[in-house]
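TEACHING EXERCISE
Course module: macromolecular assemblies
Task: Read the component lines below, then compare them to the predicted structure of the full complex.
Student: A.B.
Group: 4
Components provided:
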Amino acid sequence: MTEEIIIAGFGGQGVLSMGKILAYSGIMQDQEVSWMPSYGPEMRGGTANVTVILSSERISSPVINRFDTAIILNQQSMDKFEKMVKPGGVLLYDNNGITHPPTRKDINIYLVEAAKESALMGSTITFNMIVLGAYLQIKPIVNMENVIKGLKKSIPERHHKMLPLNEQAILRGHEIVKQIQETKSILV
Amino acid sequence: MRELRLMKGNEAIAEAAIRCGVDAYYGYPITPQSEIMEYLTMEEPHKRTGMVVLQAESEIASIHMVYGAAGCGKMTMTSSSSPGISLMAEAISYMAGAELPCLIINVQRGGPGLGTIQPGQADYFQATKGGGHGDYNLIVLAPSSVQEMADFVGLSFDLAFKYRNPVLMLSDGAIGQMMEKVYLPAQKERLTDEEIEKRYSDWATFGKKANRERNIITSLSLESEVQEKHNFKLQAKYAKISQDEVRFERIACDDAEYLLVGYGTSARICQKVIQLGREKGIKIGLLRPITLWPFPSEEISKLANQVKGILSVEMSAGQMVYDVKLAVEGKVKVMHFGRFGGMIPSPDEVLHALEEKLIHN
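Instructor-supplied answer key:
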């Protein structure tokens, strides 16, 4: 099993920390993991993205240009990464601020209205965990128990009181994700 | 008992340094390696082992602090990224001349000049062919995973003290910034002053006792005969290192018809290229130099007898390719492929380059 994921959005949306939680969850299941962030000008306010790979084997390149899953959280990232999803792969996006929704027919497309939902939950910091929950609903590559362990590892101890809210957000993500396109293409 | 963590390459270096019993780190911040000193500052290793961590006023100051501490027989290190290493070049040549052990880490970024803060591998010539002036060599190790970032700290100091020679770890921004699983070594005690005196009393300067001759650390000798003799001694040492310390990894080489040569991040990308190529029926192998100096020339020469062509993959305009060509001695075609200025080649691009330059040509 190898799952190659790009998570892309604005700096501040929790893109990098979502990737980190996913990587930690993988470690809890004895998987090999890599977490390769964009760094530099991006982290100072522009776009941010991270490539996360979880695998049962030694990971070759942490830098890749074709993904099993793209999690896309703004228009710039949609423009850049929609075309990099492998045929038959998964594109998950939040439509908040998206003016040009995905158009490819050979991939599976899912929608999670995480920005809207996090506002309804009364705490916008739950945004990235709702997205993570949506992703894990589509591809349950790590189980919930290990995600919670991963959360504990990657959140500083002083913020551990936020754990129940994060868990609630993940579960909310499970519930609200919608498949809007299914493709018959076989993953190559 | 080895401990498992998820860490950035830069953080792994810092934690490994504390655990290896390093006495002192002197540095000056620069992207993409600032996490090394950040981590060390946050960890407060003086409370754990007594290790000194000091932010100097410049790279030039930090390497000279390393020079001073190394002269006392201490385990001492610095880190920087490309432009900062250029500033250190003079002192590195002095330390090679004075035969002092130390660890210098270059987490490379794209150049030349201030260049960019994104990853690069364009300091290969600087690392392996000098950088500073004079006939000297650094032992150059090229980690290609976060695990190796941690492991090579201890290895570097072993080699540095074994040969009394500066060791350079040539990494890059991608490996510095990425997180992977890493098994950390167990904590070692720092050497006491008495242990240092016992081990290094024939060269280190820690206060002369009446019962021995004075140790002098210098790279200056105004008598040419003496300086030539010193150079012969250095060259003999370099010959010994070349013979005994070559390190490399062979990946999928046994049945390979085409060979990639790559180190660091490029070597990781090449492993994906092997997979993509083999899916298309192209038997690709990878020779990954772990020591860039001494270079695994002999192994590459052997592989040149077996393969139809060799592609050197670097995030530079073509530097290591010269060493590959010297090793191959014209036996097969050797080409270079690289992206640079902060760009990282994609596995697809590398495979395409291999097909274009070696197969369809």
